[in-house]
Amino acid sequence: MEQNPAAPRVVVGVDGSSSSFEALRWAVRYAALIGGSVEAVTAWEVPYGWFAPSMDTDLDVESARDRQAQELREVLGDERAASVRAHLARGNPTDVLIEAAEGAEALVVGSKGHSGFTRALLGSVSQQVSHHAPCPVVIVRSKTS
After folding, report:
1. Could you tell me where the DSSP H helices lie in the chain?
2. What is d(CA 22, CA 90) in angstroms, rounded to the nearest whole number?
3. 3-state DSSP call for residue 56?
4. Residues 48 and 19 sit within 8 Å (Cβ to Cβ)
5. Contact 120, 38 (CB under 8 A)
6. Whole-model pTM over 0.85
7. pLDDT digits (tens, 9 = 90+) for 18-77
8. In b/e form, how buried is each residue of 119-135, taking b as 16+ CB within 10 angstroms?
9. Neighbouring C-beta atoms of residue 44, cutoff 10 Å
10. 106 and 11 in contact (C-beta within 8 Å)?
């Protein structure tokens, strides 16, 4: 599917949580209403500090892209997933989403993601982007919240 560079962009943060899947569905519906495109952004960050578990810091990027594409298909179906541009980025999720949202019509995030302990220490991604995003932010609650 060819993207129209002049069409409004809707950026959505997807982290594998049910809340982010609801945000993805909302972003796709909204983009259809405004004649825009959707960019699904998944960010990862290697934990640091005294509380970080010992882990391999190398992410298998190809495997992560495959998983991201699979999640998009499972949530949206094959046809709608094919219309979504997927991005995978290493970095703080808040920073990655704010940068991706530059020039976007809206940034859409779920109200709860996969970051329990980190969220308690640093604040949630949805809270942070709502304060710092360069465009309107939509925070979507999960049906199971």
Report:
1. 18-34, 61-76, 78-82, 93-100, 116-122, 125-132
2. 23
3. coil
4. no
5. no
6. no
7. 899 999 999 999 999 999 999 999 998 766 555 545 555 556 788 888 888 999 999 999
8. eeeeebbbebbeeebeb
9. 15
10. yes
20: tokens are 């982010």
**Phi then psi for 86, rounded to 5 degrees?**
-100, 135
Q: Which of 14, 91, 109 shows the shortest CA–CA distance to 45?
A: 91
- The helix or strand, by DSSP H or E, that contains position 117, with its residue range, turns out to be helix 116-122
- In this structure, what token pair is assigned to residue 144? 């199971």
State the CB neighbour count (10 A cutoff) for residue 16: 13
Q: Which residue has the tokens 């699904």?
A: 40
Residue that has been written with the tokens 């709860």 in this structure: 112
* Count of all residues that appear for the chain in the document: 145
Question: Residue 116 pLDDT more than 70?
Answer: no
